Amino acid sequence: MQQTPRANRPHIAVFGRRNVGKSTLINTLTNQELALVSDVPGTTTDPVYKSMELLPLGPVVMIDTAGIDDVGSLGKLRIKKTREVIRRTDLAILVIDPFHGAGNYEKDLYNKLQDNNIPVVVVINKIDRVKGIKQDLLDKVKLLFGVTPIKVSAHSGTGIEELREVLVNRVPRDHEQPHIIGDLIDEGDTVILVTPIDSAAPKGRLILPQVQTLRDILDNHGMGLVVKETELEGALKTLREKPRLVVTDSQVFGLVSKIVPEDIYLTGFSILFARYKGDLMKYLEGVAKLENLRPGDKILIAEACTHRRQPDDIGTVKLPGWIRSRICNEVKFDLVSGREYPDNLEQYDLVLHCAGCMLNRKEVLSRLKEANTSGVPVVNYGMAIAYLHGILDRALKPFGEAYQTWKGYRK
């Protein structure tokens, strides 16, 4: 990896009505021509994502959104896309200007951001075009949002340094967890990473969870040994001391569990990412539902990436096959991928979600929250596969609290 992955960068989204200067503000903040700028209202249609450096904060993703006051049938679709951005926003910039002011559009958006625990920085732009900001606008902003706005000119650069400093201080420090695996090992520990190389593996590289897990091992002064499942038994024999942990790709969980002795901790990349990107305890509730599926139940399979499907694809072929053969044959499946995530989750009995390595943590947690609000449990691929192969107890042992909670469920 030559740069920080997009999913590990804080996502800063810029919201506001059409033509308040959102795109110009992004360009000025970043000192780059990242966003298309025009005096024509509605130039920005779909949300635009740009990975870049915002000094002194560092690597971020800036999101330019369509106007929240867009009109017509296409305008409604654009507003819907803008609202979907909230799922993945770590910090929001709400832009108003002296000409449009602030009202119901802004207040409605602000309330939705607050409901999702997203910090909001309110900005009054285009101060270079007026002699002074009228007091009644400042009073209205304070009344609507309870904050004093930052006054800037994206055109001249006035107030931009102050805005940068505020952004640095307001970005949530928990936009990602500190460790994938580092808190489970001590300095000098050996960790074996089992990484199958099949027709679905990207040519010439490992997949992101494998690379990031290896990096976290090295960052915490551990030693990582990467092998295919066919070399695992030989690797275990060559070690003078047993490894602290073996981490495997979920699709070979069953095979690996038979090779690794019971006195060695074993878990999966997907389970590591269940807590790194999401909420391991919440996923346990999904496992409880998984084992109690009934005929006619409906499962949503949600994948964060869009990839070329293989004949034995894990999400669309293997998992549905295992569920039908080992739990209940008469269940139904729907699939969404990429940024898709339905609003009507109530129609499902369970969400079966991928590890979420291509999503930032905020979006994974937002998806979990939406499912929870709809009364639908969620389980991720790795935990489901471990359960279906009868080894979830073992795969959870490295995670003390989750393991004890699961034992309580089993009782």
UniProtKB/TrEMBL annotation:
Protein keywords: GTP-binding, Nucleotide-binding
Domain Hydrogen maturase F tetramerization, chain residue ranges per copy: 282-398
GO BP term (any one): tRNA wobble uridine modification
Domain G span(s) in chain numbering: 11-126
Name the record gives this protein: Small GTP-binding protein
InterPro entries: FeFe-hyd_GTPase_HydF, GTP-bd, HydF_dimer, HydF_tetramer, P-loop_NTPase, Small_GTP-bd
GO molecular function annotation: GTP binding
Superkingdom field: Bacteria
Species for this entry: Halothermothrix orenii (strain H 168 / OCM 544 / DSM 9562)
Boundaries of every Hydrogen maturase F dimerization domain copy: 180-278
This protein's GO CC annotations: cytoplasm
Matches recorded under PANTHER family: TRANSLATION INITIATION FACTOR IF-2, TRNA MODIFICATION GTPASE GTPBP3
Lineage start: Bacteria, Bacillati, Bacillota, Clostridia, Halanaerobiales
